[in-house]
Specification:
Blueprint (H helix, E strand, L loop, with lengths): L15 H6 L14 E5 L4 H6 L6 H12 L8 E4 L13 H18 L3 E5 L1 H8 L5 H4 L3 E6 L2 E8 L2 H6 L4 H14 L17
Parallel strand pairs: 1-2, 1-3, 3-5
Antiparallel strand pairs: 4-5
The chain binds uracil (URA).
The site of uracil has 10 residues, from loops.
Length: about 200
């Protein structure tokens, strides 16, 4: 088997405010050849404490939607635009997104997913390099040049949006189900590695 250098960041001091506020760097989790790559904004308090993206209430919403689409969290890769927790959970600043951009690019290139799903406005706008009306565009698929290739990107709401507004849950779940479908992963609830090519 050929070993590949992973996309994890082990040390970084590019953003002084984030170095101050983080307790650790939160790298992406999941298979390094996942068909589906989810990209969020930045770690919050729970993620900073546990060292894993989307483990708080937003993570539960995402896990539930994945399960309903026949997927387990372990089947997909989950990462963020910024790997360190911003103070008081503020949005990452543009320069912080810029500082972390090459790490995400490297992760996308390394994982080479069939489909990227942006969770919320920040990753949507970052990856598509334009303004995005997330609620209106949820579930739409566009091509973008990322990680050295043209990639399919599915726009999705941030899972936290469904906690603030229950009526968004249907659109969120529908976008995740569409992502599972487009990436050719199982919707039979069977779990396990589920690239269509595996069957
Ligand atoms: N929100 C995000 O955007 N990312 C996380 O990892 C957790 C919450």
């Amino acid at each position: 088997m050929v070993e590949r250098d992973g996309p994890d960041v082990t040390a970084c001091e590019r953003c002084p405010a984030l170095v101050e506020s983080r307790s650790r760097i939160v790298n992406g989790v999941g298979p390094d050849d996942a068909a589906l790559l989810f990209v969020g904004e930045a770690p919050g308090a729970n993620e900073d404490a546990e060292g894993e993206p989307f483990v708080g209430r937003s993570g539960t919403v995402l896990d539930d939607a994945l399960r309903d689409a026949g997927l387990a969290r372990a089947d997909v890769r989950i990462t963020n635009c910024v790997r360190c927790r911003p103070p008081e959970n503020r949005d990452p600043h543009v320069e912080e997104l810029d500082n972390c951009a090459d790490f995400l690019e490297r992760e996308i290139e390394f994982v080479d997913p069939d489909l990227i799903v942006t969770l919320g406005k920040v990753p949507g706008e970052r990856l598509l390099d334009r303004s995005v009306a997330v609620t209106k565009e949820a579930g739409s698929v566009v091509d973008a040049r990322l990680g050295g290739a043209s990639r399919r990107v599915l726009v999705c709401l941030h899972p936290a949006a469904t906690l603030y507004d229950r009526s968004q849950r249907e659109a969120f779940d529908a976008a995740i189900a569409k992502a599972a479908d487009l990436a050719g992963v199982s919707t039979d609830g069977g779990g396990g590695q589920s690239r269509l090519g595996d069957y």
